[in-house]
Design brief:
By secondary structure, the chain is α/β, with parallel strands linked by helices. 49% of the residues lie in helices and 23% in strands. It has a single domain (2-153), classed as Ribonuclease H-like superfamily/Ribonuclease H (Nucleotidyltransferase, domain 5, 2-Layer Sandwich).
Length: 156
């Protein structure tokens, strides 16, 4: 089974493709897409196009998406909410099962503590997926954690 984990964003979107086989998880690929467009409608189109490319290339069987958390910057929060809506709609249009998780649910699944910091999450992600030398940013790390959470919560 291939699982796509997504950390939504309007300027960067973290993604990770995990493979679950025989109860073992591994990372096939992970990274961050950059959205360079300036206006919101163009950003949303770019998010959709990049996500469709990831789906077409990797053919996931399940997708996990992180829900929004409280943001201090309202403009950024609104843009990320729009991007997340485009992501959810795109996944549903592709007919791929979708699971959504709060940041606390992701942290609990990965570290067993809902208030873990980013370093603790990254450390456990690398341990679970046996990644000796993580080469990515926070968005990619979060996407890996979302993918792990989706793998743990999927219906058998």
């Amino acid at each position: 089974m291939r699982i796509l984990g997504i950390d939504p964003g309007s300027t960067k979107m973290g993604f990770a493709i995990l493979k679950e086989e025989g109860g073992s998880l591994s990372a096939l690929t992970y990274g961050t897409t950059s959205i360079k467009e300036k206006e919101l409608p163009e950003k949303l189109r770019a998010v959709r196009e990049q996500l469709l490319k990831i789906i077409k290339t990797n053919k996931p069987d399940l997708v996990g998406v992180e829900q929004l958390f409280f943001a201090k910057n309202k403009k950024t929060a609104i843009e990320v909410a729009h991007a997340r809506g485009v992501i959810v709609l795109t996944i549903l249009e592709q007919g791929i099962p979708l699971l959504e998780f709060t940041p606390a649910q992701v942290k609990i699944a990965v570290t067993n503590y809902g208030a873990s910091n980013k370093q603790a999450v990254l450390k456990m992600v690398c341990a679970i997926l046996k990644i000796p030398d993580f080469k990515g940013d926070d968005n990619a790390a979060d996407a890996l954690a979302v993918g792990i959470t989706a793998a743990y919560h999927r219906q058998y």
